[in-house]
Amino acid sequence: MARQSTRSTDSKKMNSELFTLTYGALVTQLCKDYENDEEVNKQLDKMGYNIGVRLIEDFLARSSVGRCQDFRETADVIAKVAFKMYLGITPSVTNWSPAGDEFSLILESNPLVDFVELPDNHSNLVYSNLLCGVLRGALEMVQMAVEVRFAQDTLRGDNVTEIRMKFIKRIEENLPAGDE
Amino acid sequence: MADEALFQFLHNEVIQYVYKSAENGEMENGRCVSKLEHLGFRVGQGLIERFTKDTSRFKDELDVMKFICKDYWTSVFKKQIDNLRTNHQGIYVLQDNKFRLLTQLSSGKQYLEHAPKYLAFACGLVRGGLSNLGVRSIVTAEVSVMPACKFQVMIQKA
Asked: ipTM of the assembly?
């Protein structure tokens, strides 16, 4: 009887477990396939990029967010709308550079690492590096070249998880975007 | 819904990755499906552990299969299996008339040749789930018209 009742209530959470575990299986596979962590990071970033360029379509179609006027607005949309929509979390936006072209996303929790512990021999692995690729790919599709990296990671002993984003330039509309 | 798009994109990337490393000659093409299946197996093992922690004990094999068709399928693919058939000798056929991972692909025979790629992971999910419930099996999938799909579960008697 209990079986029936537990099902439908938190079906959404179940789904994110599917995502988390699938991502874990992927990282495990990559670690097996590549000898060093740097290669794994690169591969994760690349896959994230591929996801990002598609995900932005889904996002724009479903969120009814218009064009952002400046990088601050972009930061807000990423943190409050996009992260909320796809991962169910709202990171805080902090550490603006004086020029306003660089900021940090602070993640209180990271759904990707729910069941993860990094073994000692993978100290260079950026486990959630997929996210960087996703952000970069998605923003590239709206004519923004950005640099994204993990500045801190709770998996590696930091107190918080911090994603640092830096605006590089606007991509001109008539140029083919990206080289990947 | 939201998480789902993310999973589907990730799933596509995983397939892309596995098939690309095959192209580079790191392994033969036929192994791609089994590699994807293996990834699914691991995920299935993890999922079933979390889904069954509050459930009562299963009576028998059929009870386990029913759980897979109803609760497990709903949690993972947001719908139940449409039809479960068995010959009572260890073979079960699970039919899903609108399988989640194929709906974006086509509704008909177009791209049929690519369907196996998109099913291998799901087969693994089922086998992994069953395995952690103490049922050893072989799971295969077949499609004649997308997005309908039949999974065949053959129980391995120890």
From this structure: 0.91
